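Progress note, project year one: complex with fe (ii) ion.
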Amino acid sequence: MSGHPRIVAYLQRALNHEFSAVQQFTLQAVQAERLGLGAFAGELRAGALDELRHAEAFCRRLHELGVGSPSAQAVGRPVGRTQVELLHFGLLTEAEAMRIYAEALRCCERMADAENARLFARIHADEVQHYQELERRLREHGAEMTH
Ligand SMILES: [Fe+2]
Ligand SMILES: [Fe+2]
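Model obtained:
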């Protein structure tokens, strides 16, 4: 299997994004613990694991495409202090993931790359679920939606 350089670039960007999300949600889980929100901390940890599995899937695909020794660069994303801030910054990360993967999916479709299109579509669907869950939680807190 070989991939078009543009699709390989999307996979690499996706890998970076997923590790950034793992980092953010892990830091948020500790902050939630500090706020005494044990159940929420557990949810954030579970969310970090979801993103870790996404990272593995993208990394595996890069290997399959012959990219030797893929590596990732996590970008520091805001953590937040209050519960609403944690939810809000998480929501921004999920929105960014949805945006990148929708764009990657369109690129795969244009290039008739069905296999990578399936991968991006599957993970995009997970991110939509993550996004909707955070959006629901923010509404429960009566927070203003910013987008
Ligand atoms: Fe993800
Ligand atoms: Fe996500």
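The radius of gyration is 16 Å.
The pocket of fe (ii) ion (ligand 1) is lined by residues 18, 21, 51, 54, 97, 123, 127 (CB under 6 Å).
No further modelling is planned for this target in the current period.
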